[in-house]
Recover the amino acids of this structure.
């Protein structure tokens, strides 16, 4: 079997990779719409105490879209405390920013208190909405004595409200609040910043093939003219 010239092979590989990255980037940035009901996405959280990263202080949340109307969006959230490597903790709250901004929120389950316009400590700063199990409705600083302990998955359902009809929605700046931290001398409370996992989808083979084929044909024609 005759091999393609090196230059053309490189272009095919780059074209396929570019197609994959473009697809993944667009999928990751795609806003939530009415067609997203039933879809899920995962957010991984790190952990720090007084802005010092703590290895082993971590959490994972899976958000599933349960409803989407003109004035509200619902989510089912499974929050797992994945702290390990000698670190234990209790997650007492989870929060995020949104676009467009929300005007109301409710929560039921392991976190049954919703707060708008609060802030997390440890250098995290302001956060548009947080959900927790206690500590009042005026701040996001801490919860009660419950929450999600190490190795446990807690579930809660949230509904976000909007003043006017919306057609799409995006999250930003995910955060969690850790308390009762053990296994470190840095302190007993901290926060974590969330990073959404990239989508597992890959570009359709036909799309990548068409892109690569078009570039190969163009290069072959150019070589023949020379």
């Amino acid at each position: 079997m005759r091999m393609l010239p090196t230059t053309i092979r490189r272009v095919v590989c780059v074209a396929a990779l570019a197609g994959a990255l473009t697809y993944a980037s667009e999928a990751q940035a795609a806003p939530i719409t009415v067609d997203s009901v039933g879809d899920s996405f995962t957010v991984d959280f790190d952990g720090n105490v007084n802005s010092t990263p703590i290895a082993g202080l971590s959490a994972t949340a899976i958000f599933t879209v349960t409803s989407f109307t003109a004035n509200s969006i619902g989510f089912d959230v499974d929050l797992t405390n994945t702290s390990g490597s000698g670190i234990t903790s209790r997650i007492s709250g989870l929060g995020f920013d949104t676009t467009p901004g929300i005007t109301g929120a409710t929560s039921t389950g392991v976190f049954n208190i919703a707060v708008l316009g609060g802030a997390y400590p440890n250098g995290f700063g302001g956060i548009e909405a947080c959900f927790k199990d206690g500590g009042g409705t005026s701040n996001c600083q801490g919860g009660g004595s419950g929450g999600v302990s190490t190795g446990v998955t807690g579930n809660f359902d949230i509904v976000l409200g909007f003043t006017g009809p919306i057609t799409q929605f995006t999250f930003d700046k995910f955060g969690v609040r850790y308390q009762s931290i053990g296994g470190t001398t840095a302190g007993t409370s901290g926060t974590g910043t969330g990073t959404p996992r990239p989508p597992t989808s890959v570009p359709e083979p036909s799309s990548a093939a068409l892109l690569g084929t078009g570039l190969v044909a163009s290069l072959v024609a150019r070589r023949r003219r020379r």
Summary: Residues 6-29 form the longest helix (24 residues). The domain at 31-201 is CATH 2.60.40.1170 (Immunoglobulin-like).
